[in-house]
């Protein structure tokens, strides 16, 4: 078994098409087919199911792909470690993050860290919590910035922030002059919310349950920016993290009792981090104001 065979197999799995994989790899299709056939013969299993002109991973293929991705991640890590040894203070950090953190927290962390370590490069990936976790396990990410689940036996989390949510009201709203309000006072308002599956939606739903509220949700979106924009347009109210400097057309009012979510950096304890990623992990908790 050769590394080229593993790379070919991974590309076929990604495209699910032999012709497309051959073009992406700059190899002939017959040569790619022979490589796959030799790999399947060596392993003694069928890695793909043939579906017309397309291919679909078999159960054995899905299992093998996980191992191949782990090998690829180790090779990338090895290259990065050698590069760091040759040029201390350099390196690449592959960091995944929730979209709701891309507005302020993520840019603040990256900017502050690069002021200290200007030669460090970041590869950033925005995604949902489940997607980020899968990419961390597959080796595509070194670290993820997310809201940790109650139980996760594979991923370890280091808390960096307890983020407070506020009520977002349109300018001119009847409660916009208040310094603080309860969720009960928003009963009857039309809420703008993130879609189910978003971590902020989980926090919102939990806060409503704790207050005994059944909110009237008028809009759902995948985008925090869209929700903020709809609030500014006067389409309803929302419960989201405060934004430094605020947003034109929106008033942020503190909520009592406080509604918060934990933000943490996740990593695989069983996988050795590059020196750059380890330094970032060690630094980040102290870099965010309490």
Automatic annotation (TrEMBL):
It holds the Pfam family HTH_1. It comes from the Bacteria. The keyword Transcription applies. InterPro entries: LysR_HTH_N, LysR_subst-bd, WH-like_DNA-bd_sf, WH_DNA-bd_sf. Gene3D superfamilies: 3.40.190.290, Winged helix-like DNA-binding domain superfamily/Winged helix DNA-binding domain. The keyword Transcription regulation applies. Residues 1-58 form the HTH lysR-type domain. One of its GO terms (molecular function) is DNA binding. Belongs to the LysR transcriptional regulatory family. This is DNA-binding transcriptional LysR family regulator. It comes from Psychromicrobium silvestre.
């Amino acid at each position: 078994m050769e590394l080229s065979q593993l790379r070919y197999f991974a590309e076929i799995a990604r495209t699910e098409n032999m012709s497309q994989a051959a073009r992406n790899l700059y190899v002939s299709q017959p040569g790619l087919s022979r490589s796959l056939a030799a790999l399947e013969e060596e392993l003694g299993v069928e890695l793909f199911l043939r579906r017309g002109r397309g291919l679909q991973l078999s159960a054995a293929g899905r299992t093998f792909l996980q191992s191949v991705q782990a090998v690829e991640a180790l090779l990338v890590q090895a290259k990065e470690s050698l590069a760091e040894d040759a040029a201390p203070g350099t390196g690449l950090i592959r960091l995944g993050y929730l979209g709701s953190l891309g507005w302020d927290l993520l840019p603040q962390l990256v900017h502050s860290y690069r002021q200290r370590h200007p030669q460090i490069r970041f590869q950033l990936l925005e995604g949902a919590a489940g997607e980020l976790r899968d990419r961390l396990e597959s080796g595509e990410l070194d670290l993820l910035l997310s809201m940790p689940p109650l139980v996760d036996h594979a991923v370890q989390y280091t808390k960096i922030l307890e983020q407070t949510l506020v009520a977002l009201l349109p300018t001119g709203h009847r409660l916009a002059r208040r310094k603080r309000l309860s969720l009960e006072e928003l009963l009857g308002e039309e809420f703008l919310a993130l879609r189910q599956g978003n971590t902020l939606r989980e926090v919102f739903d939990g806060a409503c349950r704790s207050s005994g509220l059944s909110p009237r949700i008028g809009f759902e979106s995948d985008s925090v920016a869209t929700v903020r924009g709809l609030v500014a347009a006067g389409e309803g109210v929302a419960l989201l993290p405060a934004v430094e400097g605020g947003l034109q057309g929106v008033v942020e009012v503190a909520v009592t009792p406080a509604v918060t979510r934990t933000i943490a950096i996740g990593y695989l304890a069983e996988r050795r981090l590059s020196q750059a990623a380890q330094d970032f992990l060690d630094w980040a908790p102290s870099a965010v104001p309490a």
